[in-house]
# Entry
Amino acid sequence: MYEHDVIVVGGGGAGLRAAIAAHEEGADVAIVTKLHPVRSHTGAAEGGINAALQEGDSWQDHAYDTMKGSDYLGDAPAVDTFAQDAPEEVIQLEHWGMPFSREEDGTVSQRPFGGLSFPRTTYAGAETGHHMLHTLYEQVVKRGIEVYDEWYVSQVAVTDEDDPNERDCHGVVAWDVQSGEIAGFRARDGVILATGGLGQAYDHTTNAVANTGDGVAIAYRAGVPMEDMEMIQFHPTTLPSTGVLISEGVRGEGGILYNSEGERFMFEYGYATNDGELASRDVVARAELTEVQEGRGIDDEYVYLDMRHLGEERITDRLENILHLARDFEGVDGLEEPMPVKPGQHYAMGGIEVNEHGETCIDGLYAAGECACVSLHGGNRLGGNALPELLVFGARAGSHAAGADMPEPKIQTGPDPDAEREDLGVPVGEPGATEAAADGGAVENPDSDPEAVVEATAEEERERIETLLEREDGVNHADVRADLQESMTENVNVFREEENLEQALRDIQDARERYQDVYVADKSRTFNTDLQHTIETRNLLDVAEAITMGALARDEFRGAHWRKEHQERKDDEYLKHTLVSWNDGEPELWYRPVILEGDEQTYEPKIRSY
Amino acid sequence: MSTQTPDTDSENEQPSSTSPQERRMAEKQARKEQREADEAAAANEIQGETVELKVFRYDPEIEGKEEPRFDSFTVPFEKGMTVLDALIYARDEYDSSLTFRHSCRQAVCGSDAFFVNGSQRLGCQTQIADLDGPVRVEPLPHQDVVKDLVVEMDHFYDQMESVDPFFDPDETPDDELEEQRQDRENREKVKLSTRCIWCGACMSSCNIAAGDNKYLGPAAINKAYRFYMDEREGENKRQERLEIIEAEHGVWRCQTQFSCTNVCPKDIPLTDHIQELKREAVKQNLKFW
# Structure
């Protein structure tokens, strides 16, 4: 058994920032990650990092824009904390050597971004995430923080009290991808899940192949509710053939969207008469698809994003990476021709329910970054708000786990026994519930000795993997995953209809049934990606189901969530977060009210126009 | 175990009057034009074209795979298909034990550097249409093979981490909200060096690194360059960096063969950076004379 004070699961932006914070607090911290940290998908973020740095801007304005962007589904304590902490975090990055783009006077440049009332997006070319990831990893190396890279965490070691609010987390179980060794990792002070996105639930996504929602599913099966899972961001500008992201920075610098008629549709068809291309992402994504549906798309599939008028010098200075991406992945020269773009799955606003210190309802279990839902982005995340989130809430989770003194949290977590459960009228959950070969869930261990809990979980994991590897014939996980992705893209996309959502839930049930017979053809212990992907697919089933359940239950239109039958925001009914609890394989859906009372102001829901 | 012998053509290559980066860009442009011509030709042909992959296989603990071999896969070709797409197809449709690293699919995570038709390339960035068939995919040369296309990266990481690969200024502003200033020109100076994605293609292509296990290698020297040239670091740290750079297995081992520069998927002028650091070392040594 390995042992540390704090175990961080995941080596992307949130994980690295959390590890540094915990280390600074004096903890013995280790990062356990399925990819070497520099391979993490934070590195693919392009546009920038929002923070109110300049005179004329303020954290209050940043908070207001964020709350408006969230369509009033953000929790004010999270939004306020975020906007207050972001400037210091950005300057901290600068002090760590981040190669930000600069003004003539040598200060950090800031550019306009969608949904922002002030140009407050700091950036490093159009490869901001790459530089941020490497800068953070450099600081991890500098501090000598231990990294277990290519170790796949498949379980958290949690005690088995009936009420998840009373459970304790004592560590994780991981296997060394290279050797196949399965080991317990005891965390004396805390486990921080920072596993990133879940875009692989869809087949057209900007996310990496590694973004399989592992942390979300692991925490869920240990008893932590998933929050606001239906809120999925579809980025308006992805390359049609691959889903590769074209940064919002292109529009921030003045890039223009055209339909097949050569019309600047954001203005001409009234989607956003003030901000046009720089409206919030959900607004632009819906506008593009509407254009295509009404026959004004190109090849019935996409629209054009044109940046030629910005000129070669400006493009090379601020958006050079976009030229490389468009050329390598779509065969288009952005200096000579407009780039084809369409919406693609990009970001999960929802995730593991946490408070503003990153704590889940399970003592000692934390989450930060995209896998977490502190409820900052609510119904829609603003461009440039994900990277500062990693910094702010990664740091807070790291500090808190390492024992830093922090004020009482204002955000509640954990299953609420008094909340009313929604009946969707469609079967959901685990066929065979907890007997499934690849089941997760809290370990049954009457002994509360922390090391015994970790060891028992490790033993359970060894048996589970043994069973999977022993099976000689069955279903290939790749087929199950492909069908799931196709159904999600078809049925749980930008435009959502009741009938389609129900179809998706039936498809997920079908996929779950087939997953019962899944088998791993590769019997090797060495670098068995077949095994790893098989377990990841199970995680995707859980997160996809929660996304769809939330989308079906929320019969209103808010942020990224649009319902054909309910095209209005219903503040009387739905100023509340969707929560899905595991409940031994029979998912329960319930709600908790949104917190709109902030530090200095109460955010009054207003009509959201750009 | 290590497999292939390196492609030695580059030994005789003389640096031409244009910079290696420009040459590479020109080659890329030529390839792109060729690809477009090929695609236009392909569009006129009947559907159902396929591509044949010959993929290196090895697994130390599986019977029949302990001895390295090549497996052939016939994959349906689609416009825009990359080497990585073809490998994923082969794995998901034919043999789920086919093993290779990959993640972002957009040339930023640096996981999928392979030896494709005899040169180091990122699978995700290499169009099948640019390659002669059958497409031969092997693990990176000069690195121990773990399984199939997966190589041991620890040595590469060790070299990267041996050059103090972190920003280390002599002092930073006391005010936690005050940034350090950096000139636009200085940022431009380090810009290309900061693009490195740690894919290891350069190290694998380098004959010197192949023969000298202690040689820092192009990527690590480039990392040192990135900080040495950053005006925000102080004079003390620069001296320390120079000592690392010009130690026995540092910059002076480089024989200016440009193989690293030729394979870098991010077009970093690695050889130029190494040469520039050699000049810095000479300048410093003259100063102390």
Notes: Residues 154-171+181-288 of chain B form a domain with the Fumarate Reductase Iron-sulfur Protein; Chain B, domain 2 fold (CATH 1.10.1060.10).
